[in-house]
Amino acid sequence: MALEDAARANSGIRLMVIAVVAVPLLFALSGLAIRYAAFVSLSADPSLTAYARALCRWDCKWYVDLSEQGYERFPIPNHNNIGRWGFFPLYPMLVAAIRSVLPFPTIVIATMASVACGYASCLVAWPLLEKNVRAYVLYCAFLLSGPFSFYFATFMTEPLFVLVTSCLFLALKRSNYLAAGLSCALLSATRLVGVLAVFAIVIRMFEEHRQMGGSAIAFPRWLLSRPDLIIAILISPAGLFAYTLFLHVTVGDGFAFAHVQRAFGRVAGNPLLFVWDGLSYHPNASWLPTAPQWSAMAAIAGLALAGVLAVRRQYGAALFCALALILPLTTNLASMVRYVVGLAPLTMLTASLLSTSRLTFAAAVIALPVACYFMTIAWLGDYLALV
């Protein structure tokens, strides 16, 4: 009987592993089919290469140029007068490295790499979702065949950013601070806001210190007594520092990534004012929200979800997500939908909330792929709110 029980347990584990691996694969394939159907409905060229190029919109084209040509030393005759310095280097470098091995166009390689990152993000999310099957299914559906899955199927930084963010919080969940620090370093080389994850690392260290009975006053002394924790904190901004040094040596301005933002229309201002201006922008009689209104509502929803994380005592994730939204909000509302979608703790929380009842779970499973088709058409049509 003991052997039979052990055999049944092993069989159950194998089935669970197969399910965890198969679910994101099925959604990856279904997402490809849905987005391709949307593309074919608008294009006369049905080839997969044309599909990959059609999905490459907005910032994607900058990343293709960056991967193929690198950073320019301004000015360059007959080129765009806006430098590529505002786009961080890690993902373009990764795609360039793969291109040196595989004989495919850059956008094709980037598309495959992005889908692979999305798939890997789902696998990493399994333990972060506390092995909640329904939440896991919804999270996989959202990333790979949901309304914003095109972000994770083209050359944008969101696929890598979500994957590394998930790895960071999994490392924190397991108190592996060196792995978390390395993940933060990679995040800071992917997007500027990635460096803000260091606050989540420090907060988790403080929580562990308190769980062991330490006082808040004694935390700095305890921290200094742990060289591994100090190293984890010090390496966290390494990606950003390396990029700053590179810009200083090659361009002469280590903060060119910030100074070039003016060329993209990003000027520092009051984030509350930007949100209010976005909400109140409705110059026509249509009942549909305008692009600025969608962006403002996305910012509000993202900050509200960060508040829910705080209520659930996930303070590190809450602070990281809030800061990662507030920082770009100090310039304008551009790309706010994408920034909210690209924060893994927020999308995992949403999946968990929708999985609490069978009704919301079933409705979301149906709605996400349906919305994928129409949102892909909007993306292909250069709808401004999706920039």
UniProtKB/TrEMBL annotation:
Residue ranges of the TM segments: 12-34, 107-129, 136-157, 177-203, 229-249, 291-311, 318-341, 361-381
Keywords of this entry: Membrane, Transmembrane, Transmembrane helix
Identification of the protein by name: Glycosyltransferase RgtA/B/C/D-like domain-containing protein
Organism the protein comes from: Mesorhizobium album
